């Protein structure tokens, strides 16, 4: 190649590569939430989008792609162009779905670039407002007296509410009829209306309903009591007789495999900055969630964590097999 051609080739290559890093994002970035609008995953995404806007420097759009326990939204992102404009915000479902779906349309560990974790969120066991039980002991009696007739709402196979409900059924050795929704926002509407009996859902969705007395609240899923005012009075399931019951879920972000490294670095840096936003932290804490520190907003660490969760939860799901839908 002569010098002129070499220079032309180099200029063309630079023109192809540079805009990707220098100008990203040059159009709106879509965060895919694999659950219905108004639910806990959606709430985290919308609050985080506020905090991300400045460090990322552009418009962020939330797209709700609910259904099949979050796997439809995850599939959409796995198959999207790896250009940094389609990002997934998912929860523990990333780690439960490999054990629950025979044919996932994506490979959890191979088809995504891991960006890092966002928060950890406890769950709460709640009931419809007309449920006659006022506390956990009364709920246990009511469940015993109504075996075979109880409806347990969740956000589909592999969702956080599914996982918590599965562990609960296994712990009390009672099989319930699970009613799947596209997210726990529509499930909450039906719970409030009395169409379903109970649900285990993230505090980020249940806190305001518990606070205003619109639902019956029975217990928290963690080993420790929660500190936020609306939830501090609730007992743990562990101390209510279900020894060792402990479910905490997490949210994290992912990009399609093959997204350029400079774009991933910018997204990761923006995520780290957003997670230090005092307004975001305040909102999360008020809802019982804990925002993670920098060490967990690390792609390699998060991937290792998801790998370990797939194994750990896979074992638990297998053990609870009889209660899996
Ligand atoms: N809380 C839901 C779940 O159970 C998801 C959602 O609606 O955000 O996984």
UniProtKB/TrEMBL annotation:
Residues 1-22 form the signal peptide. It comes from Ideonella aquatica. InterPro entries: BUG (IPR005064), Bug_dom1 (IPR042100). Belongs to the UPF0065 (bug) family. Gene3D superfamilies: Bordetella uptake gene, domain 1, Periplasmic binding protein-like II. Pfam families: TctC. This is Tripartite tricarboxylate transporter substrate binding protein BugD. Keywords: Signal.
């Amino acid at each position: 190649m002569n010098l002129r051609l070499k220079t032309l080739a180099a200029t063309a290559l630079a023109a192809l590569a540079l805009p990707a890093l220098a100008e990203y994002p040059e159009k709106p970035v879509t965060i895919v939430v694999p659950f219905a609008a108004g639910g806990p995953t959606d709430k985290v995404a919308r609050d985080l989008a506020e905090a991300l806007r400045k460090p990322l420097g552009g418009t962020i759009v939330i797209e709700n792609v609910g259904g099949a326990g979050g796997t439809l939204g995850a599939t959409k992102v796995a198959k999207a162009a790896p250009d940094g404009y389609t990002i997934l915000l998912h929860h523990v479902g990333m780690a439960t779905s490999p054990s629950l779906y025979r044919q996932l349309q994506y490979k959890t560990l191979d088809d995504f670039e891991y960006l890092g974790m966002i928060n950890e969120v406890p769950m709460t066991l709640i009931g419809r407002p007309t449920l006659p039980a006022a506390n956990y002991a009364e709920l246990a009696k009511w469940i015993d007296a109504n075996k075979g007739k109880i409806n347990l709402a969740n956000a589909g196979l592999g969702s956080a509410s599914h996982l918590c409900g599965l562990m609960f059924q296994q712990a009390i050795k009672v099989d319930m009829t699970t009613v799947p929704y596209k997210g726990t926002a529509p499930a909450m509407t039906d719970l409030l209306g009395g169409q379903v009996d109970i649900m285990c859902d993230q505090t980020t969705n249940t806190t305001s309903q518990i606070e205003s007395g619109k639902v019956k609240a029975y217990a928290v899923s963690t080993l420790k009591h929660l500190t936020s005012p609306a939830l501090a009075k609730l007992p743990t399931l562990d101390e209510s007789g279900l020894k060792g019951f402990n479910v905490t879920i997490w949210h994290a972000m992912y990009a399609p495999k093959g997204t350029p490294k400079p774009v991933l670095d910018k997204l990761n840096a923006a995520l780290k900055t957003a997670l230090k936003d005092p307004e975001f932290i305040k909102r999360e804490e008020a809802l019982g969630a804990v925002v993670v520190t920098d060490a967990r907003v690390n792609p390699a660490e998060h991937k290792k964590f998801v790998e370990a969760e797939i194994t750990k939860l896979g074992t638990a799901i297998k053990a609870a097999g009889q209660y899996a839908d």
